[in-house]
Structure formats: structure tokens, C-alpha cells
Specification:
Blueprint (H helix, E strand, L loop, with lengths): L2 H21 L3 E6 L9 H16 L3 E6 L2 H11 L5 E2 L2 E2 L6 H19 L15 E2 L4 E5 L2 E2 L2 E2 L4 E6 L1 H9 L3 E3 L3 E3 L5 E3 L2 H12 L3 E6 L8 E3 H4 L10 H15 L4 E6 L5 H7 L6 E4 L4 E5 L5 H14 L7 H6 L4 E6 L2 E11 L4 E9 L8 H15 L4 E6 L3 H6 L3 E3 L6 H5 L8 E6 L11
Helix pairs in contact: 3-4, 6-8
Bound molecules: coenzyme A (COA).
């Protein structure tokens, strides 16, 4: 590895460290389709196994729920048995069950074997993974639905949470099959997605992760309310719609974070879990973003956000000491501990005028309406303090302000003390906006 690559890696590790701490001893349920383990795709199987090994070595408690559709289909084909689908599920009849059991049993053994590798140059070199399967998911038949007997197609009756918890607490990785037994001693064929959902909900897992077989073309973060209309969106693939529906259900059942991550993109899972930018889509009950007043603890985060813009000349340079002294004038948008946007208000009480300053949004989070929301909040704050006019000085962003109801003005429109501080060399343009008592048309929320 070259020196620049090594220093990039060191920086990446530093950036990942808050996530490494945050995920330690957390329970994640990881569901993936049978395609992820299909023969002939050893590169991606190895990548998945090494991601699993990495997560466990970083202290994550994992429950793995593989799907088995292609394995079952291949076995049924070999045995010359055909099955039919009803309500999006396979009807697991008496004839099909031996093939289904064989396919899943072989798949689980193969997976166990892969997770047991310890040879040099394998994904698990040096790792000692303890993997267990259990009967903690109890099944029941789905029965007759819309006139069709689904046979040995089942659903989750209950999850033995205490038993599973103790396995996870003892450091075992749980490998959960989609064939589960009922208290009558019969074996039922369950949808892996449903098993994962029930496990995550009953265990109150910290995360439920669905690895998808197609790219996740959804926003990086969504609340359930935002995701709901997408479920009726015809442009969404069948796979994505199913995942999104299960993700919404899981969040409603109390799983705090559900991730959809493209399994076929190398490193996507690790990026999603250990980087700020992420890779897939995170679904939560409420927005994780919080807009709030800044405190002294935010100074470093604000500086990190605005320094590049100061260097480009977009914002005026603010020394740290000034920022510390004026921190109560700042508002921030925080996401997962990072300051992703900020704005400040300076009041000229006698003139009943406020200056909007230091409006900035992290480049990765632009065009999401954050600046508009911050502006609306600043306008509200200024109005509450009895201000009648808001002004801003800008060199690069004139049109944004015009589109948000500002009009260009002359420097002499500024309060006298602000005119005295006007930097003639910088030649910023002045924009003002009257603050109506009723409220502002710019507030999108
Ligand atoms: C300007 C800025 C705050 C907007 O943040 P944001 O969260 O992306 O803003 P919103 O999502 O509310 O608005 C996005 C819209 O503003 C437009 N926009 C962004 N910068 C603009 C600019 N300089 N001039 C005109 N329009 C601009 C975007 O193109 C987008 O419009 P579109 O979706 O119709 O194409 C952000 O781009 C930024 O931090 N810029 C650098 C700092 C800066 O210029 N601050 C102003 C200091 S006076």
C-alpha cells in the first residue's frame, strides 16, 4: 500500500471510530436472499462472509437470516416437483417438502462451513466465529388463505427471546434458517424476510438490515411517513417494494433503524454501518435530524463545516474565539452527532433589524431543503424578538436569497453600526427581507 493510501486508511479508521463504539454489543439482524450464497458467485459469497466476520470482530451481535429461494427452486427442479405461488408465497405441499428440507439443510451446512473457515487467505483468517442455530423461532401453519391451503408454508408463532438473547450475550452468532418447527413437531417453510422482521421486532434489535439484490434507488434516509407513499409507486421494483414494506412494518414494531443495502456492491454494508455518508437507505420512525440552538460543544463541528467555505471565500473568516463568544447566536442541524448545517442571527435591536449570517449546509446534504428550513427558523426567531427586517450580505448566493423573498438593497440600508463594518473590498451584495407579523412564505415545514 502506498503512503497516501495508508494515510487515507488511517483517516477512514478515525472517521469510523464513533460507529465502532456505537455498534459494540448491539444486536443486528442481517437478512439476505439465497442468491447471496448461490454457487458460482464465490467472490460475493466471500465478501459477505468477510463482512460478517468483520462485524462480529468489531463486537456486533449478529443474527443471520438467509433466504433459500434459488436453492429450493434448484432442488425442486432436480426432483421434478413443481409448486405454485399464492399471494406471493410458495405453496409448500407434501410432495415439495422433502426437496425444500434438503435444499435448506444443505444451504445451512454450507453456510456454517464457510463461517468456520480459518485458513490463511480466507475471509475468516484469524477470526474464531462461534455460530449456532436454534429452534428459538417457533412456527405455525399459514393455513387456508383465500380458499387455498398453503400446506407447510408457515409463519412465525413466537420467538423465544430469552434463549436467543443468552446465545447472543454469550458471544455466539445466530444462524437462523427459514425452516422452523412448530410445537407439534412439524417443519414449516417461512419467508426469510418475515423471520428476520419478527426476530428484529421481538429481540428489539438495534438494527434490521436487508441486503438487496438490486440497487437501492431511494433517499439515504426516510421516515416511515415519507416511505409510505413510495409503496404505491409503480416504478419501484417488486423486490424493493417488498423490502420497503417489511422495513416500514419493522419500524412500526419498534425496530429503531432498518437499513436497505445493495448486497452486490463491494463494501456497501461496511460503508452503510461505519461511515457518515452511508451507502444504502436508512428507515426510521422519526427524522434523525434535529434542528436546535448551538451550544459551546458545537464549535468544533461548526468550524469543520464552515472552514472549507471560508477558504473558498464564500463565507467570511470567523476565528474560533469569536465563534465561541457568539455561539448563542447560532443554530445547527445535527445528524448522528455531526453538524450538517448552521446559520446565525445578529440583532440590531434599536433598528429592529437582524442579520442572517453563516448560512451553510454540508455539501453532501444540499438540495434537501435544509437551508430553507433554517431560514424559516431564523425568520421566526427574528420575528419573536421584535425584528421587522432581515438582511444578509452575500457574494456567491444572491439568487438563492432572491428565490427566498429577499430583494437587493444598498449598503446604506444596513444599520449604521453594520455599515461601519462593511468590507468594501469583499463587495458583498446586500439583500433584505421584510418580516411580516403573520409568518413567512418560505417555511416549507
Ligand atoms: C446555499 C446553501 C446554504 C443552500 O443549502 P441547501 O440546503 O442545498 O438549500 P435548499 O435545499 O433549501 O435549496 C436548494 C436549492 O438552492 C439552489 N442553490 C444552491 N446554491 C445556490 C446559489 N448559490 N445560487 C442560487 N441557487 C442556489 C439549489 O440549486 C437548489 O435549487 P434546485 O433544487 O431548484 O436546483 C448551500 O448551497 C451552501 O451551504 N452553500 C455554501 C454557503 C453559502 O453560499 N451560504 C450563503 C452565505 S451568504
Amino acid at each position: 500500500m502506498s503512503t497516501p493510501e495508508l494515510s487515507l486508511m488511517a483517516q477512514w479508521l478515525r472517521d469510523a471510530s464513533p460507529y465502532i463504539y456505537a455498534h459494540q454489543d448491539r444486536v443486528f439482524v442481517l437478512a439476505f436472499a439465497g442468491e447471496a450464497l448461490a454457487e458460482g458467485d464465490s467472490v460475493s459469497v466471500d465478501a459477505l462472509i468477510s463482512d460478517i466476520a468483520l462485524l462480529t470482530s468489531l463486537g456486533v451481535r449478529l443474527v443471520l437470516v438467509p433466504g433459500s429461494r434459488p436453492q429450493i427452486e434448484a432442488e425442486l427442479l432436480d426432483d421434478g416437483v413443481s409448486t405454485r405461488q399464492h399471494l406471493g408465497m410458495r405453496v409448500s405441499g407434501e410432495q415439495a417438502m422433502p426437496s425444500i428440507k434438503r435444499a435448506v439443510a444443505v444451504q445451512m451446512l454450507d453456510m456454517m462451513a464457510r463461517l468456520s473457515m480459518g485458513l490463511p487467505n480466507t475471509p475468516l483468517e484469524g477470526a474464531r466465529l462461534s455460530v449456532v442455530s436454534s429452534n428459538a423461532v417457533v412456527a405455525r401453519p399459514m393455513g387456508v388463505r383465500e380458499g387455498v391451503d398453503l400446506g407447510w408454508t408457515g409463519e412465525v408463532r413466537k420467538v423465544e427471546v430469552t434463549r436467543l438473547r443468552s446465545l447472543l450475550d454469550a458471544g455466539h452468532t445466530v444462524l437462523q434458517s427459514c425452516l422452523c418447527a412448530s410445537p407439534t413437531g412439524e417443519v414449516f417453510n417461512l419467508r426469510a424476510e418475515d423471520v428476520a422482521l419478527e426476530l428484529a421486532a421481538c429481540l428489539q434489535a438495534d438494527k434490521l438490515i436487508f441486503l438487496t439484490e438490486s440497487s437501492v434507488e431511494l433517499p439515504k434516509q426516510m421516515t416511515v411517513t415519507e416511505a409510505q407513499p413510495l409503496l404505491d409507486d409503480a416504478s419501484l421494483s417488486m423486490e424493493m417494494a417488498l423490502h420497503l414494506e417489511s422495513a416500514c412494518k419493522a419500524v412500526r414494531r419498534g425496530v429503531e433503524r432498518v437499513h436497505l443495502v445493495d448486497r452486490r456492491t463491494q463494501g456497501a454494508l461496511i460503508q452503510e454501518l461505519y461511515s457518515r455518508a452511508g451507502h444504502g437507505t436508512l428507515l426510521t420512525a422519526e427524522s434523525l435530524e434535529k434542528m436546535r440552538r448551538a451550544s459551546i460543544d458545537d464549535v468544533a463541528g461548526i468550524l469543520e463545516l464552515i472552514r472549507p467555505l471560508e477558504e473558498e471565500g464564500v463565507l467570511v473568516r470567523r476565528p474560533r474565539e469569536q465563534l465561541e463568544l457568539e455561539i448563542d447566536r447560532y443554530w445547527v442541524v445535527e445528524l448522528d452527532g455531526q453538524i450538517i448545517a448552521t446559520a446565525a442571527l445578529h440583532f440590531f435591536i434599536e433598528a429592529r433589524v437582524a442579520e442572517l449570517a453563516c448560512l451553510a449546509v454540508n455539501a453532501q446534504y444540499r438540495r434537501g431543503g435544509r437551508a430553507s428550513r433554517l431560514l424559516a427558523r431564523m425568520e421566526k426567531e427574528a420575528r419573536q424578538r421584535g425584528m421587522q427586517t432581515l438582511f444578509v450580505l452575500t457574494t456567491h448566493t444572491a439568487h438563492w436569497f432572491i428565490e427566498h423573498g429577499f430583494a437587493q438593497a444598498q449598503v446604506d440600508a444596513l444599520p449604521v453600526e453594520r455599515q461601519a463594518m462593511y468590507n468594501a473590498q469583499r463587495r458583498s451584495k446586500v439583500f433584505t427581507k421584510a418580516l411580516s407579523a403573520a409568518g413567512s412564505a418560505t417555511n416549507p415545514s
